[in-house]
Amino acid sequence: MFFLMTRRRSNGGRKRTQSQSSPTTDDNHPEKRTNMSGPQTTPNAAGLGYMHQPPAYTGQYYPPHLQFVAPQQSPPPPPSAQPTSPALLTGDLVTQTILSRLESIDARLGKLDTIDSKVTQLSAKMTAMETKVDRLEINVQGQNQKISDLEQSRQFDAQTCDNIKSKQTELESSLKKAKEKNSKMLNDMQKIQSENNRLNENVIDLQSRSMRDNLLFYNFDEIMNPEERANEKCTDKIFDFLTNELQIDDARNIKIDRAHRIGRFKRESKRPIVVKFNYHQDKLRVKQTAFEKLKDSDYGVSDQYPNEIRERRKKLIPVLIDAKGKGKRAVLSYDKLYIDGRLYNPEPEA
Predict the structure, then answer these.
(1) Where are the domains of the chain?
(2) What is the chain's percent helix, strand, coil content, to nearest 5?
(3) Contact 301, 290 (CB under 8 A)
(4) Fewest CB within 10 A of the end CB: N or C in the chain?
(5) pTM over 0.85, yes/no
(6) Residues β-bridged to residue 51
């Protein structure tokens, strides 16, 4: 808006009276009166010239902030009717400058409206982003809590692993000691087993030596009555066998230490009689004679061996028979079999 100001003299701010007024007023100089039908002029506040007062509204629309300053576009007077003065030209130039600046301001205000709309949109987006950020913060807090729980769980697991490793180390140490002890015990057991086998062989050898002078006589009838069987005289039966079956003339001169049956009594079988000779030469003589004269007889005579040796001989006898059937020279001596002069080694059992 434009504010119209009147100039005052520098008389201390006092108003001028009618007598002190300027002689150049319209009343005193009627020749300077302007045509009332034309536009009215009013001096501006700066004293730079006269500006046109805004005439009545002619129907053209102006924005509210421009309605009081917009000029009324009236048809210009003919060049001959209204002279052009420098003051009038200066007022029009100022008005045009103000209008151009106002239009520029209006354009900028329009841009400000656009910017305000964009700012509103940005504000809405920022609000949405803030909501999302809040949610993300909540999620991050939840994730941080989970990570914290995982770290605590990991620390517990790490401590548990350390305890397990410590216990495993102790167990490995104990296991190592146990293995060493077991290995030592195994070596000791092997030594004991070897010693036991050696002692067993020594016992078998002692048994064999104690039976070296013994012979077993097979297929002799037994007495069924228990009382008479208890009083059976096996020595007399052996002497009769030596005299009648083997035809040894001085059989009664052979010295027999003892003679008795071995094994449990069974009605369906006949227990052999074991005879211990006092002299080894008598044993060899009886054995040789029995081998020659009892080939077609039901009786039998053989050496007495410990049970272990007898089991070994049972396994070797089929091999002995097979080798002789093939025309090989086979000899079974004690618990060893020789085929064509070579010791036979049976395959070890699986």
Answers:
(1) 1-83, 95-211, 212-304, 306-350
(2) 50, 10, 35
(3) yes
(4) C
(5) no
(6) 42
